[in-house]
Write a structure and sequence with these properties.
By secondary structure, this protein is α+β, with helices and mostly antiparallel strands. It has 12 helices and 8 strands. Helix 4 packs antiparallel against helix 10. The radius of gyration is 29 Å and the shape is flat. It starts with a helix and ends with a helix.
Length: 397
């Protein structure tokens, strides 16, 4: 029975190493990767602290399988190194009973990861993007405080300041480019401030005691003036729901909506195809038909993205069990009792094989030119086959 002392002892060791590793790997991923990148992009400490609780759930589908594998390698490697596995087998206990706690841990963690994907991860991911979008004004000020400038190739304007005191811009310089990329407006002021109009997707640049020149070189001056420009496209798109922001039911509903649009456009195309030759020759008809075909192709690509997300979530969740199947036999055979040896001999190679396959596979599947199931589930299939073979060899030996 699972309640035996042996099972409880192994499970307790697995849980201790798992929890410690999960905290460590998640912390390293957040601090060394995500938080550092956020700081470089101009996010302030307050914004980073507010984002961390929303970032953690999104990292768990990657850290939980990895820490499950690491805990398995450490615990079973330590049992083998201390000759406890040999003693257990000498007592006539089937080796399968020894690895049962690891398998149970893999099944439970797969279920937990899938449960997180059901609601918590999409919800927190959407909250994170909304937080950045709604705090666009604070983000602008943070970038000006850090770099004394705001400039990007996707923006039609740039701004430079001598300094920032609270919400006050010291000696701001505002430049605007036209569609040809030529500067058509340069404004200098003693002071100013920024406001974001989320409803109209505008950045309002308020400048006092300003002078400047137009594109033709003509000068001007204003005592008080507000210049309104469009917000960057990336922030505007943040309000659009992506597949990662949707729950399972929302993705299925979105698929039905997109399919209904495709069916409607196909019906309209069929009507145009039945038009007499004289009517079909009108210039607007081929143009409209081309626009319908483009819209159909776009909606189909959106359905593919949703299908990839629907398959990727259970695929990543199942990775916990696949890692257990491979980690138990390898940990026992290598018989390493320390963390570093377990990390190098099993954890590092498997993770470096699995996650690149997952990332490459999902990327290729979204292009729609490859078999979706094979691309998304290929890493799990490979790890599952390796695990079954290793378990079979372990049982034979």
């Amino acid at each position: 029975m699972f309640g035996s002392i042996l099972h409880r002892m192994i499970l307790w060791e697995l849980l201790k190493v798992f929890v410690m590793s999960l905290i460590g790997i998640t912390g390293i991923l957040l601090m060394a990767g995500i938080v550092a990148e956020a700081s470089q992009q101009g996010l302030g400490p307050t914004q980073i602290l507010a984002a961390i609780p929303l970032l953690i759930p999104s990292t768990l589908p990657y850290t939980i399988p990895a820490t499950t594998l690491f805990a398995t390698c450490v615990v079973y490697g330590r049992l083998a190194a201390d000759n406890e596995i040999l003693a257990i087998r000498s007592a006539g206990v089937n080796i399968l009973k020894v690895v049962k706690p690891g398998i149970y841990l893999g099944i439970v963690m797969s279920g937990v990861t899938m449960g997180l994907y059901y609601r918590i991860i999409p919800y927190t991911h959407m909250l994170l993007r909304s937080l950045i979008f709604n705090d666009a004004e604070e983000l602008m000020y943070s970038m000006l405080k850090k770099n004394n400038s705001i400039s990007h190739s996707t923006m039609s304007y740039s701004m430079f300041v001598a300094g920032v005191k609270g919400k006050k811009l010291i000696s701001p310089v505002f430049k605007h480019r036209n569609k040809a990329g030529e500067i058509d407006l340069v404004v200098q002021a003693r002071e100013g401030d920024l406001r974001v109009d989320v409803a109209h997707k505008l950045l309002l640049v308020h400048m006092k005691h300003c002078t400047g020149t137009m594109g033709d070189g003509s000068p001007f001056d204003f005592e008080d003036k507000v210049w309104d420009v469009d917000l960057p496209d990336d922030w505007i798109k943040m309000k659009e729901r992506r597949a990662r922001d949707m729950t399972w039911q929302e993705m299925l509903e979105k698929k039905r909506e997109l399919q209904a649009l495709i069916d409607r456009d196909n019906e309209e195309l069929g009507m145009y195809a039945k038009l007499p030759a004289a009517s079909a020759a009108i210039a607007e008809v081929p143009k409209h038909m081309g626009s319908l075909k483009d819209r159909i192709n776009f909606n189909r690509s959106q359905i593919v993205v949703l299908d990839v997300e629907l398959n990727m979530r259970p695929s990543l969740s199942l990775g916990c069990l696949c890692f257990i199947l491979a980690g138990c036999p390898v940990g026992i055979w290598f018989s390493r009792s320390d963390y570093l040896s377990s990390f190098i001999t099993c954890f590092l190679p498997i993770v470096f094989i699995y996650y690149p396959l997952v990332l490459c596979g999902t990327g290729m599947a979204k292009e729609g030119r490859h078999n979706l199931f094979l691309m998304v589930w290929g890493a799990d299939i490979l790890m599952g086959v390796i695990g079954v073979i290793l378990f079979w060899r372990l049982m034979r030996n």
